[in-house]
Design brief:
Blueprint: E1 7-10, H1 17-28, E2 36-38, H2 43-48, H3 51-63, E3 67-72, H4 80-93, E4 97-101, E5 122-126, H5 129-141, H6 143-148, H7 158-163
Parallel strand pairs: 1-2, 1-3, 3-4, 4-5
Helix pairs in contact: 3-4
């Protein structure tokens, strides 16, 4: 199962930290087996280190992960210093990404999705534990096949959400 590997989480640490907190709560639920790398726990390093040092530490984490979640909030598309860089690294390293829409959209949200993430082999889901788990299990495990078939802006049909009870 994809979600049993470390999952790198990319998000707006100023605006969307609450969402990461929810995800940590899901991690404690016996039915949700999320295990995350949080780039934002490097704050003590970031306070004293230059951008290159922080990015080097983030890259090391990315090299040791199998998949990434990009939490897409209201301001995510406008973040370039780290969020865009982290997405660029995932793309260049071939790390499958799950785009999670905080506004509940079940497909790519053109208004909020960072331009660099649009039209890539990424699955887009709402901010719901079961939807994220489904994407980590199915999409990330099948990422190579999706990529070979040049699939982009992937989303699940309503029937999948009905099956998940959502």
């Amino acid at each position: 199962m994809g979600y049993r590997n470390k999952t790198y989480v990319i998000f707006d640490g100023d605006e969307d930290m609450w969402a990461y907190g929810f995800m940590l709560g899901w991690n404690k639920n016996e039915h949700m087996e999320f295990s995350f790398y949080n780039a934002h726990d490097l704050r003590s390093l970031a306070a004293d280190a230059d951008e290159a040092t922080v990015k080097r530490a983030l890259r090391h984490r990315l090299e040791n992960t199998k998949q990434a979640i990009v939490v897409i909030g209201e301001k995510t598309k406008d973040l370039f210093r780290f969020v865009r860089w982290e997405i660029e690294m995932c793309l260049s390293m071939g790390i499958p990404m799950v785009a999670v829409n905080l506004n509940g959209k079940r497909q790519m949200d053109a208004e909020r999705c960072p331009p660099i993430l649009r039209d890539t082999c990424t699955v887009h889901v709402p901010f719901r534990a079961k939807a994220i788990q489904k994407a980590l299990d199915d999409f990330c495990d099948g990422f190579d096949t999706y990529k070979q078939k040049n699939y982009t802006n992937i989303f699940y049909p309503d029937a999948v959400y009905a099956g998940l009870g959502l």
